[in-house]
Batch of 2 targets.
Target 1
Amino acid sequence: GNDSATGNSANLAWKRHPYMNGFTGSYTHQRGDRFIFKGGVTWPNVVFPINIRDKGTEIGVQQGGTITNPDYYGADISWFNSSVCGTSFCKPIFSAESKVILVNNTFVYGLDAMSNIIIDNIEMKDFYWVSGYGASYIWLGTSENVIIKNCLLHNWTHASYSAGGRDDLQVVLGGGNAPYSAGSSILNTIIDGGQTQVPNNGSGMAAYHIPIIKNSIIKNASNGLIINGHPSGEVAYSDIGPIYHSFSGLVAGNNQYHENSIEAVDSGTFYIHHNYIHDELPEGGPYAASMIFGSPGDILYFYDNIVWNTWDPAFKFMTTSSALISYIWNNTFDSSRNGSAGSNTGTFGMKLDSRNNHFIAGVFDTSNMSIISNTNNVIQTLSQANGLGYTIINKYAPTHASDPTVNTGILLTCANCPDFGKDILGNTRPITGAWDIGAYKYTGQ
């Protein structure tokens, strides 16, 4: 590429994005602009961040597009470097080269000025940090309607604790203040720290204050997803785990880095459905729970999920008001590692509706809960479940029409719940008659 080119075709491509360090060309932003990065090309540490907020041509206003015509940062699968990719497309690569990015330490810096942007089909890797808020792959802050999809965000490292390193990475960093990254989402994306060496050396939070995560893989981090409810929160069709103990929390011995697969912050309505949530491995962690809910006014719909191998109970409800209502329907829990599916450790009671769940080796501790309904659940020991074929190998699916989870549930309805009435594999549950219990509808296969 050549920064002095027009940048409006593959043959006249720029070398750098206009908001990258070192860009020498000319550019004026128009709403709905599309930036296509060539597949197989690597942009090095020195050009980052793509500083949308501070290098934009409309400083002081939003640098993105509109809701109906967003700006696009992504790829064209027909345009790639065949000497790198071979005969088929591979993603363009942003590499921090395992060094700190000197300005803001992020690949894409928007903060509050990148609303209505799509980031698509880009690989970002080899990130490094020491400490401090803002270490991230994409820092969208309070920008709204940012869609991150089909991306690979992976392979991070950090300074040791003795050298000042702290567990401060938030891979996708949203905003903790209004408007809270409202309408933003992570779709069909892999976030993978690559930290498989030891369970007690985890680091990195996959996403902070992003309301929607779907069809994604979150693994090898010390925290999964902190979601908000603006306008509502949803985690769906995703695979979350393993989640490891934070290296900072282990050394410091405090709960600042408490490890969670999913945590809800702020008040809102949350839909957590059709996920695999597993392998949370922070032995001895002070706040190691797969899911934490309990803000004032929370309403949780948790359905068609499978949860297994969590150090603490799958749920830790930490109620700060009595308004929390949780609908826990058609899930499969293997609690053999901890003996409980969940409890309320908050200072207020909460309302629980638990139906059509398959509980293996542990149920909810309801001593600090007000029960709306707690019926049509199958409760088994681990040996009972395994003996009937409900094993981790087949993700606890029923294997026979006579199994106790088949045709023993009740029909449930939820008008506003996305994909309600489908099991975790997408099989449609009947609209009349009995449902199966747990995350599966038995199909005889």
Target 2
Amino acid sequence: MAVLFSLTENVTSIDKINVISIIINFYSIIGFEESNLELMIEGDTIMTRFGLIVAALALTSTAHAGDFDAATAHGPFIDAFNARDWDAVKAVFTDDAVFHRASGDTAFMGPDAIVERFSSTIGNEGEWNVKFVKLDSTSALTGKDGSVVERGDFAVTAGADDSGCYAGSYMMTWKTADGGTWGLQHFAWQDVEAETATCQ
């Protein structure tokens, strides 16, 4: 079976070099030639358009993602993040990991930089005080090198009393490390303020 995978993406207010690097890395992981990628840069907006035939792939299922299980992979990250166990959070990421928020202007590279961002702002109880309440994978695919790209929906609480609620979509790239464990290589998300019920 072949499935046509088409996407139009608009990314604003983020460093162009970081976006291009992440997009090209995504292509290399899933095994497509760079010639299939078209990038159009207009002002502060980067647009990507592609129409690709993906053989034997159902985008709404993780059945083709080998032994990868999203809930199992997410569990240690969510537990450690919400407990503010930053050493454990750092251990989830690969040495070449990248994290960015689509609405931000900086990509954080390497476990130290990522965890510093989490601990100083995003997960800091005196700042945003973000806590994950949902991280649900909706699709995953395996690249030719065995890495897994997955996307899904998430929700977080925020604020000193956890009364704020934000929800959106995320994309993660996972690769196997020594011992067969999964390491988080790329983590990107976009969120908007949501109704309180979304975080309950």
